[in-house]
Amino acid sequence: MRARVVLVAVLAPLALALPAGAARNLGLPNARLTPGATNPAVRQATVHSTICVPGYSSSIRPSESYTERLKFSQLDGGYNLRGDTRASHYEEDHLIPLEVGGSATSVKNLWPEPRYVAWGAAKKDALENRLHALVCSGAVPLVTAQRVFATNWIAGYQRYVG
Q: I need a surface site. Which of 24, 33, 93, 97 has the fewest CB within 10 A?
């Protein structure tokens, strides 16, 4: 009986760490832990004075000491991929990117995104750039871009990047 309890204790954090359909979509966060959060100062009416201004994202980006501390805490707390807690294998990322009005510091918007999976950080970065450009050009409404990231950025990548 003791072995079964230990096994459950070891595997439980991993079950929390992986979203439904994880075998196919290892780049998606756990929606319960990271549902996404937006910046209330960024609205459709303010995009041209906020996210579309060059340098906006870097002006509100949290310090590396904040994001690294959060990443280590999340990884040690079980929010990792198959037990891999090597911090260099993850990028502490904003689910809803700063480029489309995501919250800079909310733990609901920050997660340890795997780097070395098919749907990793590099692909999400390409979608972030594409949707930022589309929002700033007026081709895509801000809330649509935010919803893409909050629901399933992989499907968004397939639609907007190809």
A: 24
Bridge partners (DSSP) of residue 91 are 113
Q: Measure Cα distances from 33 to 27, 48, 52 in Å.
A: 14, 31, 29
Residue 139 Cα distances to 8, 128, 135, angstroms? 48, 15, 6
Alpha carbon distance 44, 57 (integer Å): 16
Residue 29: inside a domain: no
Strands (E), the chain: 90-94, 110-114
At 26 the pLDDT is: 76
For the entire predicted model, the pTM comes to 0.84
**Which amino acid is present at 20?**
A
Contact 119, 26 (CB under 8 A): yes
Domain carrying residue 15: 2-19+36-160
What is the C-alpha separation between 56 and 69, in angstroms, rounded? 23
